[in-house]
Design goal:
The chain is an alpha/beta fold. The protein has 2 domains: 177 residues, Enolase-like, domain 1; 237 residues, Alpha-Beta Barrel (TIM Barrel). Helices cover 33% and strands 22% of the residues. It has 15 helices and 14 strands. Helix 1 packs antiparallel against helix 13, helix 2 packs across helix 4 and helix 6 packs parallel to helix 7. The N terminus is likely disordered.
Length: 437
């Protein structure tokens, strides 16, 4: 952490947001949802299918700074939901997230914030992000929806305090090296060309999407073309099992035989080869390979991370706040893995620039083992809600350059969508509730 910041844990800093002495209370006036579809520049292809657009759901809070330290100024908070149009990566698709937000989580937040207006007791004001546990427990199978709500609550408290997320976490002024992701292509020469274009731009770490019949040959050709590239692969659970306790049946062994061959390519890790619920196969593969096994879709809580590490299902953790159930959960995971010396890296979910700025800030924390999936949104979206990350190249030992991103500027999570941009993109707004009327 920065030398100027206290040596407390990330979780403790998070718990203090909106609750510490000197915090300005926020009275919640309204909660709404924005929805918009953003086209991908090219279909995002994995072993499980292709995505051509990115549905974006934004939770929008409007409130007022109140009490002795407040002046009644209007403040806003924004949170972004990571759910996709289907359940390719998560059991929770965008329709489920919207339903849970509309009918469960937002009404619960409003009820939690309702009551007599200030200067009555602070229990009637917007809770701190660390005080949303009851709302989370009310919908335990909707981590993506909760993460969006928690993000909006944290954002409004940060903006009320005139503080940035980077300032809260002690990483102000840092720059973050970024990595890129390449989906499956029609031919290996196309894959090599796509990776080459990224290398020319300054990316030193690239992740390839793999699956049955698209693994050893394409990865081998990329490695041959770029022997010094930091390379990892991601299967998104494409190598299935029969679901029995003895997960590695004869058929399964044949299906995954190519995975052990990947050892010879010096990969950083292989990410999520099996289904999210199938820890047993990951344990077996970890025993059979020298390449580290990383989990992503399997990790939807601090408890799931601890279980996967304890049984040997993985030795590397991909951190995704939305999948883990919010920023608070992600910071707990980062704290615990840091204490245990477990390598971490930041994963992306093809989010808009608003949420990408947030995870880029997390990517600046100590303990990140290598560049995360933090390529700018202009590399995968046709248009965006906010200005893109500012990139630059910095020299490295040996004369090579690394591509780094500046952290978002301003207070809160970073620059927020403007009304004109939302209108231009055809975004739709729905007012869900508001204690003030």
């Amino acid at each position: 952490m920065d030398a100027s910041t206290p040596a407390d844990t990330l979780s403790e800093r998070w718990a203090a947001l909106g609750r510490s002495d000197g915090s300005v209370p926020v009275a919640l006036d309204s909660v709404g949802l924005w929805t918009v579809e953003l086209p991908f520049r090219a279909p995002v292809r994995t072993a499980r299918g292709a995505h051509r657009t990115r549905p974006i759901v934004l939770v929008h809070l409007v409130g007022r700074a109140v009490g002795a330290a407040g002046d009644g100024a209007v403040v806003e908070g924004w949170g972004e939901c990571a759910a996709l149009a289907d359940a390719t990566f998560d059991a929770e698709d965008v329709e489920r997230s919207l339903a849970v937000l509309r009918h469960v989580m937002i009404p619960a937040l409003v009820e939690r914030s309702a009551g007599e207006r200030p200067p009555r007791p602070s229990a009637h004001l917007l809770p701190a992000p660390s005080e949303l546990g009851e709302i989370r427990r009310a919908s335990p199978h909707a981590p993506l929806a909760f993460a969006a709500l928690e993000m909006a609550v944290a954002d409004i408290h940060l903006r009320t305090a005139q503080q940035s997320l980077a300032g809260l976490l002690g990483v102000t002024g840092r720059r973050v090296e970024i990595g890129a992701v390449v989906g499956q292509t029609d031919a290996t020469d196309q894959l090599v060309a796509a990776v080459g274009a990224l290398v020319d731009q300054g990316y030193r770490r690239v992740k390839l999407k793999i699956g049955p019949r698209w693994d050893v040959e394409p990865v081998g050709q990329v490695r041959a073309a770029f022997p010094d590239l930091l390379l990892q692969v991601d299967a998104n659970g494409a190598y299935g099992t029969d679901g029995t306790e003895d997960a590695w049946t004869r058929t399964d062994r044949a299906a995954v035989s190519g995975l052990t061959e990947l050892d010879r390519f010096g990969l950083l890790c292989i990410e999520q080869p099996f289904d999210r619920s199938d820890l047993a196969s990951h344990v077996e593969l970890a025993r059979a390979m020298t390449t580290p096994i990383c989990l992503d879709e399997s990790l939807d809580s601090l408890r799931s991370v601890e279980e996967a590490l304890s049984v040997g299902a993985c030795s590397v953790v991909c951190v995704k706040p939305s999948r883990l159930g919010g920023m608070g959960a992600a910071l707990e995971v980062i704290d615990r893995c840091g204490d245990a010396g477990v390598p971490l890296w930041m994963g992306g979910m093809f989010e808009s620039g608003y949420a990408r700025g947030m995870i880029t800030t997390l990517g600046a924390l100590d303990g990140m083992a290598w560049p995360g999936d933090l390529a700018p949104t202009r590399s995968y979206l046709e248009d965006d809600l906010v200005p893109d990350l500012v990139l630059s190249r910095v020299s490295q030992t040996g004369g090579s350059g690394a591509l780094v991103a500046d952290l978002p500027e301003g207070t809160g999570m970073g620059p927020t969508p403007e009304a004109g941009t939302l209108d231009r993109l055809g975004a739709k707004y729905q007012l869900i509730a508001g204690p003030g009327g």
